[in-house]
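Risk register update: the risk of archive-format incompatibility is retired. Evidence:
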Amino acid sequence: MMIKVPFKTMLVLLFLTTATQVICANIAQDNRATLLLQDHLGDGYSKIGSRVYYRGKEIANANAGSFQFLGEGYAKDTWKVYFRGVAVADASPSTFQSLGDGYASDAWKVYFYGRSVSSATVSSFKILGNGYSKDSWKVYYLGKEISGASAASFENLGRGYAKDNWSSYYRGEKNDRFAGPTTQPLGGQYAKDNWSVYYRNQKVEEASASTFEYVEDGYAKDAWNLFYRGVKVEGGSPNSFKLIGNGYAADPWAVYYQGIKVKGASASTFKALGGGYAKDSWTVFYRGQELKGAGANTFEYLDNGYARDAYSKFYRGEKLQ
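Archived output:
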């Protein structure tokens, strides 16, 4: 049964539909115009006309005419200084500058991430890198004073490590229990001094400092042992060891995933596929565990955790139904 709609009603509906489309088109056009007019300053700051924004939120009372981006989250106008869109209390815009590594200064104070480093001396303050800084008398890490550190001899070694003439430091913490001032970073959060090896500033047991070297992907070795993230890999051969990638490694006798032996894997035919997947001539593996039901001959990694063989698809090591 058909319902008859009066002609006048149809005209009204048609008019409303057309008007709605016009309004939507105008809004879209206005949005495009706004984007075109938007002046992107950097690091989330932008200006539209007389207004200033940080990551889409308007900064109240900011002066667009004098507003400028300084770098690393800092910005200023004629009257205020800002860090990530928030006014920095008592900072002087006329003398304010970004120093890098999260630090900044004006004529009277040093700042880290927008907060005053109260004990720092502006005139002698300098950035060392990796969060470290110092003035003529004190040393700082991420804006906090390192108690007892010698500013005159302090130096950043890289990868979180630093030293002065008497102590060694890791991420701003003194650790004289193990490390000495001869500590040198190796990469992968490993370091060594003349006598010992460290991972994340903890001593690596059974490691030989004189022959120790960082390989890659968390693996390291000395003349006698293989290590993964500071832990000895049982049975691993340092002389014949090779990286496969994606956390996998092998020697002529075994395959390892993140330092743990992969059961049943054939070292001679093993290869990493990506996304935690790997296979040899007979078996497929996901993060070091056998992937039951997967066919090695046709198995391939796709992307973003997805993989497939001739009969099934998989996501992060699970077969999809």
